[in-house]
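Supplementary Note 3. Input sequence used for the single-chain structure prediction.
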Amino acid sequence: MTKLFLLYLLVINVAAFVLYGNDKRRAVRHQWRIPEAELLLAAFLGGGAGAFLGMHLFHHKTKKWKFRILVPLSIVIWVLAAAFLIYTGQYYHAGETAEKYIENADDLPAVMNDAAVTVTKEDDGYFFDGPGSDTAVIFCPGAKVQTEAYAPLMYLTAQEGYDCFLLDMPFHLAFFGMNRAEEVMEEHSGYDHWYISGHSLGGAMAGIYASKHLDAFDGVIFMAAYPTKSLKKDGFRALSIYGSNDGVLNQDHYQENLSLMPDDFTEVVIDGGNHSQFGDYGRQAGDGKASIREEKQWTEAAEAVKQFLQ
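The predicted structure, written as discrete structure tokens, is reproduced below.
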């Protein structure tokens, strides 16, 4: 995707440069001119750099305020767009183990048991349908982490009897797709109890979303995350899980924001776990080294969710 985007920018800028040069030639020869709206459109379609170069190389439109302001503005807009796409195009990819959980393959790791879980791809992500339950968990992935990386944790949680919806976020950033939680709840209205959960930034966004919809959920499950908005409401619950070797979670901010938790609050620290091993995507930059295997961290996290929901 990033390569195609850069190729597009190259082509549109060459085209804009040629367009400005052609219009200048027509002006000198007193021929039919290219409309100014088309020249500016070429810049805002991504050809701002080519248009700017053409303006100054051919001494064309440089005295008109529209071009002196709008062409540089188009460059700024597209530079920001390119930076955003390059930034979001670099993310942590799911490992082979996570992919196997998604595929529902026969050669799954030994951590699996015989409880049947069906994994279904939906418009908003993945549905992990476990043994019959009236409780469902909506999960928001961490920032710049491939959605499928959390498949093992979702699978194990579903095995415990709680159906899970793993949301697929635009650009792998939760704050671009929190409305998908509402869409999931509308499409699957048969549950009596709803919880929203997430890892890292996904957990923070889950907390923000829950704070605005306290009546829609029974509680929030934070994984290496903490709330930034008050979750205090009678009957509302919260669970916080993090690893003892987490090198990414800001403990000072975590402790400061515990006051935003509801009265019914449970905290579970996974001994030897770190920040990254809630998913299967490798060791995140700045994270501490885990002293337990990721399968054990998934199992302990799923067990903590089970105990909390029971």
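The chain is about 45% helix and 15% strand. The longest strand covers residues 193-199.
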